[in-house]
Amino acid sequence: MTNQKNIKRNNVIIIGILLVLFSCGWEKDYKRAAYLSLQPDTDLILAPFPFNIFDREARDAITLSHYSKEEIKNILEDHNLSWETLNHEWQLDAEDENFSKEVNYTSHYTQYFYDTEIPIWIYGPKWIRTGQYSDEINQQHIPSIYGKILDFKFKNTIDVSYLEKIFRNETTKPEIIVTVVVDQGGRQLYKAHKGAYPFLEDLKNKSAYFKKAKVGHLESHTAVGHMAIGTGAFPKDSKIFSNEIYTFADGKVLHRPVYQGKNKDWDLSEMKVPSFADEWDLSKNNEPVIVSQCYAARAAVGMAGHGKLFLPTTKGSEKISPDNDYVYWQDIKNLSWSTYTDAFLVPKSVQKYNLYQFYLNHKKEISTHFDAKDPIDLISKIHHFQGSEFQAKMDGSLFRDTITETILNTKKDKDGITDLGYVTLKATDAVGHLYGWESKEAEQVLKATDKEIETIFEFLKTNFGDNFIMVVTADHGAAPMPEISNGLFLSHERFFDTVNELLPESERTKHSLVKWVAHSQLSLDRDLMTKYQISEEAIIQKIMSIQVKERQFFRKLWKREEIPNLSL
To answer: Which domain of life does the UniProt lineage start with (predicted)?
Structure first.
């Protein structure tokens, strides 16, 4: 009887997934994103079944998340999943309106709707017509919208003439353009917690609101999304295509974060294209102030670009070299804010924002889901701090202080040259990974994030009047918690072990048929394949045979030559 129930339950889940996704043109979306993201040595594109997570080994910590029955039911309905199934799996009390569940974590990287559907608000009534627009745009269009307003053509300019209806005929230029990124703030987060973001809900009526914006590249990751917002480029050109790259050596899976060179130092040359800020700054003789803030370096760098390490330019006979911009992130070991001094500056304002001291100063006013007794304890719980109201409040306050220090106090707000401010409110991402974006913890952080955006907006109105533009968007969405979606988890460790079963047993810990893999792209070691007479087809079959909990993990694999040109 138990087996029959399990079979019935799995069939309900599978049918639901098929109904919602098989008819959605998912293959075309995947192939288009893959074409725009292919690296020179990419051999295969990997597409998992919906809700499945291909990532590093699951985190050791299990988190207790809290949920509202009503919100969970709405989320399940959006994904064609069954409340009855979840109720049975979790053994819930039918009378409880709120309940809790131990969960591991979720992630994002696919081209499925929950990872790619993002909102975009563009506020600036002088330059932008108010309205809710159904036009499909990607993050890559954002810099070109800025370029249109500033009459500035940069290297990665994309044609935005089809958006002509949103632009007003205004010749003056804004004193500042501020880009706010709500990390992991895809539409799934807002659908889950209606009423938790009153400011952003109201902003729809005061801005150009794009309700069909989406991530147009693989992978839907922080580094890639921020690069897209900062440069207007796709990964095939920028070469920034994942948060990290996985390789195999001496029987171990290794991973290298983006922008980290061979000696674990910074390597900004990994980004092969200039950012909008790089080019705008030089075009105005380094007069614009450039600020880019996020607690994660890969986000701050992706928006700002190369800073002082950008290539010089020549105007007539004059050579203009780039300067250091204000680009900074958190140094977890020291619970402070830091930067890469060869390229960037930190504002003096960061001195007031030691993480532990900030925690102590605001502990009484913030109700949170963790407690730290000293700095060492906070370091051990840093992901919980970053996924809390503390982080949201700190991010907004530090950004405003930095704008005050670098622009207002230096009278740059009245020099007629547009400054650029980028800030990522990333607590929504951290809480989403740890607790799930469906949780009450995520709702609490979303409320705090909405409040910080409102405070930034009012700060800009007070200090810049109507001479500013503010854009709010996201870098990606995220998958539902596997405990909710019945999604599967596959580690890179198991992935490498499985593929390398094709090698002679004596070679499996010495070499790998996979030269590198991210989450959606893979490169093969052709020399090793030739040596042991292993075909690409054999590797594809091996990957497609991977099962977790007796269910197939990957839905489709494409060879490089099977990815057609489906560009914009």
So the answer is: Bacteria
Kindly report, as residue ranges, where domains of CATH 3.40.720.10 are found in the chain. Answer: 113-233+273-474
pTM: 0.92
Decide if 189 contacts 442 (C-beta within 8 A). yes
Copy the structure tokens of residue 429: 């991402």
DSSP 8-state assignment for residue 562: G
Question: 281-306 pLDDT, tens per residue?
Answer: 999 999 999 999 999 999 999 999 99
Q: Which of 114, 162, 106, 115 is nearest to 434 (CA)?
A: 106
Contacts of 17-22 with C-beta under 8 Å, sequence gap 24+, read: 17/49, 17/50, 17/51, 17/80, 19/80, 20/50, 20/79, 20/80, 21/50, 21/112
pLDDT value of residue 104: 82
d(CA 52, CA 438): 17
Q: Are residues 121 and 472 in contact, defined by beta-carbon separation less than 8 angstroms?
A: yes
pLDDT digits (tens, 9 = 90+) for 501-537: 999 999 999 999 999 999 999 999 999 999 999 999 9
Does position 208 have pLDDT exceeding 50, yes or no? yes
For 262, other C-beta atoms within 10 Å of its C-beta total 7
How much is the CA Rg of the chain, to the nearest whole Å? Answer: 24
Q: What CA–CA distance (Å, rounded) separates 253 from 262?
A: 16
In whole angstroms, how far apart are CA 528 and each of 66, 511, 514, 524, 559? 49, 8, 9, 9, 18
Instruction: Give the residue carrying structure tokens 């940069």.
Output: 154
Superfamily name and number for 113-233+273-474? Alkaline Phosphatase, subunit A (3.40.720.10)
